[in-house]
Design a protein that fits this description.
It is built from 15 helices and 14 strands. By secondary structure, the chain is α/β, with parallel strands linked by helices. Helix 13 links the parallel strand 10 and strand 11. The chain is globular and about 70 Å long.
Length: about 375
């Protein structure tokens, strides 16, 4: 199937061509026509499946030729859990909006930066991408109004619920018109998600894309049995041995991420940490330098990884295993994207071996646990 069959106008089709997309991803193929018909929709698809464009494209089209709403009365609200994802979604809007006959004013707002420029930039905005906390701050300052919202998008709703946005979400939903189109996207279908689905969706179309196994098959998975004290030397050995010019390392905590990055830097490797305790400017700088190749290693926590979208990232390393198989799939899915192969490496200490067995059972794939005793880590 091609994008031509999905009901998109010629300006968006031209914009898609300029982005070098040749055919729609399964999620795009199935949800874009439904969104254009005005249907409520629940889309279940993992990160990296083309989910963002699946709602960005039709929401831009639905506003084409439509009278601009009153100033500061937005038409479309997109709620996301993190600043990084808000910035990423804004970039996707820009990539398509730049080619439209009638440009739509869009804006991303999030915490960690001054609120005043965002308040000024809200003039004439029709599509707003926001984190819940910053949105509420702007509402309290009467910087915008939600009473004319016609379309609501919840992106990565599963993470929003896990991160404890329940009170903020209740406040926001109570300010929205009851008659509106609702789009809810999530990587998983959990019981918590079912509750919010029942709250906001009206006779929804449900689209579930089973793409995890296919994506994982593109990834070469390796694992090393290693005690905690040798994880640092092993990391440096692998970066050197495999000539890793770009590798994303996952850490379990803010403190550990800083420690790993500092140790790498002290040993002559270009590395930076990215986590919630860093300022927004520092986080954007680290991500920019990593994407541009100015640094070899980016050390991130799970939450921060939500804004990391690099089509050709060759290596991911789990310095420590995540708590759940779903998080493991999300982590290693940072590589092996857009039909490109990648390598994911996990460090597993003795206490984690049982948990690693559970992960393998969940993903239905056996990963050989290699012994590190024969690797010479002296001097590293």
């Amino acid at each position: 199937m091609s994008f031509v069959t999905l009901g998109l106008n010629r300006y968006l089709l031209y914009a898609i061509e300029k982005q070098y997309y040749t055919h729609p991803y399964p999620i795009q193929e199935r949800v874009i026509p439904q969104i254009l018909k005005g249907k409520d929709l629940l889309g279940i698809a993992q990160t990296g499946s083309g989910k963002t464009a699946s709602y960005v494209l039709p929401t831009l089209q639905l506003l084409q030729g439509k009278a601009v709403a009153k100033n500061r009365h937005i038409n479309t609200l997109v709620l996301v859990p993190t600043r990084e994802l808000a910035i990423q979604v804004q970039k996707v809007y820009k990539s398509f909006n730049d080619h439209l006959e009638q440009g739509i004013k869009y804006l991303a707002v999030y915490g960690g930066v001054s609120i005043n420029p965002q308040m000024m930039d809200l003039q004439g905005v029709e599509i707003l991408v926001a984190t819940p906390g910053r949105l509420i701050e702007l509402l309290e300052k009467n910087a915008l109004y939600l009473n004319e919202v016609e379309l609501l998008v919840l992106d990565e709703a599963d993470k929003m619920l896990n991160l404890g946005f329940k009170d903020e979400m209740t406040t926001i939903l109570n300010l929205l018109p009851k008659k509106r189109q609702n789009l809810l996207f999530s990587a998983t279908l959990s019981s918590d998600l079912g509750a919010i689905q029942a709250l906001i969706l009206q006779n929804p179309i449900t689209v579930e894309i089973e793409a995890e196994t296919q994506n994982i098959d593109l990834i070469t998975q390796l694992a090393y049995a290693v005690e905690d004290l040798k994880k640092g030397p092993l990391l440096r050995y692998l970066i050197k041995h495999h000539q890793m010019n770009q590798v994303l390392v996952f850490a379990s905590s803010v403190h550990r991420a800083d420690a790993i990055a500092d140790k790498l830097s002290n040993n002559g490797y270009s590395a930076m940490a990215m986590h919630s305790k860093k300022s927004q400017g520092a986080r954007e700088n680290a991500l920019y330098k990593f994407k541009s190749g100015d640094i070899q290693v980016l050390v991130a926590t799970d939450l921060m990884s939500r804004g990391i979208d690099i089509p050709f990232l060759p290596f991911v390393i789990n310095y420590e295993l995540p708590r759940s198989p779903k998080d493991y799939i999300h982590r290693i899915g940072r590589t092996g994207r857009a039909e490109n192969a990648g390598t994911a490496i996990s460090f597993v200490n003795k206490e984690e071996q049982h948990h690693f067995g559970i992960i393998q059972k969940k993903i239905k794939k056996q990963v050989v646990l290699s012994n590190t005793d024969e690797i010479d880590l002296k001097g590293l």
